[in-house]
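S.,

Sequence below, as promised.
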Amino acid sequence: MGILFGTDGIRGRANQPPLTAELALQAGRAAATVLARADRRAPVVIGQDPRRSGDMLAQAAAAGVLSAGLDAIRVGVVPTPAVARLVLETGAPLGIMVSASHNPFEDNGIKIFQADGFKLDDATEARIERLILNRSGTPENAPVEPGTMRAGGDARERYRRFILEAVGPVAASGLKVVLDCANGAASAVAPELFREAGLEPTVIADRPDGRNINRQCGSQHPETLRRTVTDVGADAGLAFDGDADRLVAVDETGCVLTGDQLIAIFARHLDAKMRLVPRRVVTTVMSNMGLKLALKKMGIAHEVSAVGDRRVMERMRATGAVLGGEDSGHIIFRHAHTTGDGILSGLRLVQVMAETGRPLSALASVMTVLPQVLRSVPVRGKPPIAELDAVANEIAAVQEALADKGRVLVRYSGTEPVCRVLVEAQSDEEAERLCARIATSIETAIGA
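The prediction came back faster than expected:
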């Protein structure tokens, strides 16, 4: 991570430093300057989620791209994975998505995709950040003539075709599904895609107004989804986040499944169909120990990456793995897409249910989730944890108490001013108590 770029692009409070219109313009110009390619002359793809600040930042980013001499196409409100796919389909040199993902509407962000549809590697990200911070603008040999911009009216149709082709026949007409679109980018595309797959979903939180994105709905707030699933007698509930690159599922009993459980379900199903080749799954250090145990029981290797779907994908490409993801709900099918896609994952989950004929609760039993507590502590700064003596001592004491029957992970968020404390133990009570000890020490040392 750099000064501006976090785990997943640039993120912050919209229209406040650093995430101003000026910053978006600089980011668009810098990204275009670094990623411009003579063999990729198609317009730069620029999308956004429906939050109120999206127009301001998307237009500013587009102006930056044009000032670097590249053309741009604004595709409007689409899921983040749609931008990644459109970059590949159209031959664009890069794509820009304006979204703060699961964050509240007051926030926004900028994600950048390279010409191959993947997120930025560290070196390219650093080059772009240096240009932004130095405010050096375009290089001296940049074209005098600016680019032009147009609207991309068929972006959603292109994405729709891609998803249906990637998933294939679902044959799930007998299943009842509830979709929670988070009042976000999924609202305009997910219901239609599930209907085309043969389902008649009950849909909630699909009326974005620019302010209600992720508000008590979506992947971060599945309470209403849980109630709706049990009220209508659905077989499953599927929740997306604001830009639809995450999936959280609810089984027929109203129980929320973790991302790790979904990964375990997909791993077993792909393995049974001889499509998990190599027999390897990649997840992050945040994954529950129960996933590691489940994969081991299935004879599937488990690779661990740093936090972030970008890091998962990097490890997948390095090891050849075709399945990976995060406990937060980013799930990557590498042979289908270059990034996590919540809608794709949701359709594939329904596909697994249809093909196996098993309820989601039974499928989820492939993995036992060990008691885990995760706290996010607001902080006023992010000094190295090792330099906070009281915090480091508390972490060491908790690790010693857990021995080999649990684990501790303390890390700063790459997208928010918080420190995340994760503790896994043999009981909920023990995990809660030990997590509270560490969280309290962090609050005392650097709490906001």
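The chain has a mean pLDDT of 95.

Coffee later?
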